[in-house]
Amino acid sequence: MEVSLSRFRPMVETDVPAVLALEHRAFPVPWTRQMLRDELAARNRTYLILDGETGIVAYGGVMLVDGDAHIMTMAVDEPNRRQGTGTSLLLALIDSALVAGAEHLTLELRVSNEAALGLYEKFGFAPVGIRPGYYVDEDALVMWAVDAAGAEYRRMLDRIREGTNE
What we know:
Elements: E1 9-10, H1 16-26, H2 33-41, E2 45-52, E3 55-65, E4 68-76, H3 85-99, E5 104-110, H4 114-122, E6 126-135, E7 138-145, H5 151-162
Parallel strand pairs: 4-5
Antiparallel strand pairs: 1-2, 2-3, 3-4, 5-7, 6-7
């Protein structure tokens, strides 16, 4: 398995202001500065940044708990969407989780977020339920990709990777 982390770097404390600005552009209810700092301080989290000509163009994070990797958040700035940036970011987050020992992957997304749903389905995530009121203003769709450490899932990741020009 080729690891797709080369374009990304770990998020550091000095990135918080730029990531906070991206949060405000990307989400109707953005995370706060303190939430970002708390996430960075947690030992079982990995946050990755993609820098572009205009600064940080994407970031995301994953939490690993007992073999389950939870995609905490992903944001791609509007001018960089629909160019494979989200695919590359999700590949990097999943690769980092698998390297850390993840066996299964999970996430939540807004039920109205059709673009993200398509991306996650491409990565083998399947809906398993709804969390009513998970977001302040909307329900969440809960998705899982099981046996992500298995050979079949890794082959799927390699097929996705081949299409991203990594």
